[in-house]
Amino acid sequence: TLIRKSAVSGIVLLFIDMAVVMLAQKYVSSSLVAIVASSTAIWIMALDAPMWSRNFRNPAVIAGMVIGFLGVTLLYFEQFNQSSNLNNHSEYGILLLLFGCISWALGTLYAKYRSSGEEEVNAFAGSAWQMIFASLMFWICAGFSGNIAGTDLDTVPVSSWLSLIYLIVFGSILAYSAYIWLLKVRPATEVATHAYVNPFVAVVIGMTFGKEIVTWVQIAGLIVILFSVMLINKKKKIRNDK
Q1: For residues 140-154, b (16+ Cβ closer than 10 Å) or e, as one string?
Q2: Is-contact 98 36, C-beta < 8 A?
Q3: Which has the closest alpha carbon to 26: 91, 77, 71, 72?
């Protein structure tokens, strides 16, 4: 049962969303992708039916979600203006991104209420199975598209292999497993704030290690995001609903 449910959540949560993002970037810029992807937090709150009575009666949560989305928009506003986001068929990219956001939200809620089990050990086992099934789907798609046959591993630079190892360890084993575990112990709306925190962390790391220039508009976006997360987590001494 755990494996079957993990297969469903892994395909809906990971495979569909990630595949859609890759397809959408053919039509829109990465900055627009980041902005639309942040709406995942709003979709999770909107689709989390068991928590409607709590979330929609809490002005702080509603305000935090809206303000957080505005903060991410500020964060990428300048890149959005400077890039050519209105390419041919850009509407396809936006529709794909919205579909991906809804898919991630549905997969998240399925993982919380139906998949992975209640125990912590099952939550981590569930996240492992989810990643396995999602990766199998990507391998199948890559095989049918001819990408595997057309890939020469000898030409892959060392930096790419190191990046892959980093993503496996920190992005998958640690971050995604923590995400699935948090869904078991905290409300989904709280966990959904990762959609706002991720761009925040990306900008801070880029500024610190990549020596990237951060504008005052981006700093304003960072402050707005922090404020939104504080609002959403304002009343967390209430019992831990699932």
Answers
A1: eeeeeeeeeeeeeee
A2: yes
A3: 91
∠83-220-48 over CA atoms, to 5°?
85
pLDDT tens-place values along the chain, 242 residues long: 778 888 898 899 899 988 988 888 888 777 778 888 888 989 999 999 988 888 888 888 888 898 989 888 888 877 766 655 555 567 788 888 889 999 999 999 998 887 655 555 567 788 888 999 999 999 998 888 877 777 788 888 999 999 999 989 988 889 898 898 888 888 898 898 888 888 888 888 877 877 777 788 888 888 888 888 888 877 544 444 44
pTM (2 decimals)? 0.81
Structure tokens at 133: 């099934």
The one-letter code for the residue type at 118 is E
Six token digits for residue 52: 């409607």
**The pair of three-digit structure tokens given for residue 16, joined into one six-digit string:** 């569909």
> Which helix (H) or strand (E) covers residue 188, if one does?
helix 188-191
CB-based burial of residue 234 (10 Å sphere; 0-12 exposed, 13-18 middle, 19+ buried)? middle
- Contacts with 71 (C-beta within 8 Å, 6 or more apart), sequence order: 196, 221, 222, 223, 224, 225, 227, 228
CA distances from 169 to 16, 163, 177 (A): 22, 10, 11
How far, in Å, CA of 186 to CA of 236, rounded?
9
